[in-house]
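Researcher: Hi, I'm a grad student and pretty new to this. My advisor asked me to get structures for two proteins we've been looking at. I'm not sure of the right format, so I'll just paste the first sequence and hope you can take it from there.
Model: That works fine. Here's the first sequence with its structure tokens right after it:
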Amino acid sequence: MSIFTRLAARSDLPVLTTMLDAYRVFYAQPSDPEAAKTFLEARFSQRDSEIFLGEMDGKPAGFVQLYPTFSTVSLKRMYVLNDLYVLPSYRGQGVGAALLIKAQERCLEKGYKGLALETAVDNPARALYEKLGWEKDIHCFHYFWAAP
């Protein structure tokens, strides 16, 4: 089985829409393929994220979405790895690792400071992140303000 990762194109919108909707459902959001499609169309139009598609034996298997941002303290650009999703039938076969490695390579290509991500404390992918050199932040608290 061969895994291939590549920068997604607008022509990948149908398969990305299906996967983004499944990703959202995984995180207990209601299925809404039309909203997923609209969201992805905006990302392509506004060019405010980079999406990489993972394929196994020529079939779509997962995606990773990176959002460029800045670190004021280091005065450098960085990515927020906001989304990583592998279709259930492809999990445990290296697709997630290939997508994470592609994200790391992209970061190096651009000369960025690094990649940040947050994940649920019970997410089994944590072991994969740590295996690939990601470090759990134990020095900071993360806060979120939700608009009413």
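Researcher: Oh nice, that was easy. Here's the second one.
Model: And its structure:
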Amino acid sequence: MARGKYSYSMSAQTVSTAITILEITAPSTNALIIHRAWIFAATTTAGVVEVQLLRKSAACTGTASPPTPAPLDASAASGATVRWKATAEGTAGNILYDSGMRLDGGEWVYLPVPEERIIVPPSGIIALKFATAPASTNFSAGIIYEELG
């Protein structure tokens, strides 16, 4: 039975290196389903960055005090552990989705059809990462996920 859907995001964070920008570790008792992910670049400067959604076998160390996932249709807090803007990378695993984003194009969106949604197993880690270094820009990004339990 679903515990609910949650939105985890960061707003207006400067990024200029190839790093994990958002990471979610599923609770040990529940799986997660990724419904949507997005990145917005607040720039008119041309450039391209490689964006990945990937599994990890070890978590990153993130910037202190990441935002709390917001419940979208659930009253309970998410049991997932979240991190943002890696200061030390964890161990990367399988790349599940790999694409490019034009910085001056505004927004990158991952919105799969139901059959292609990523399932994160209990205690599994999913990350949204810049695989290449972008030009120094303010980025907003987020992931909408469903916690099953």
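Researcher: Is there anything I should tell my advisor about the second?
Model: You could mention this: The CA atoms of residues 98 and 122 lie 23 Å apart.
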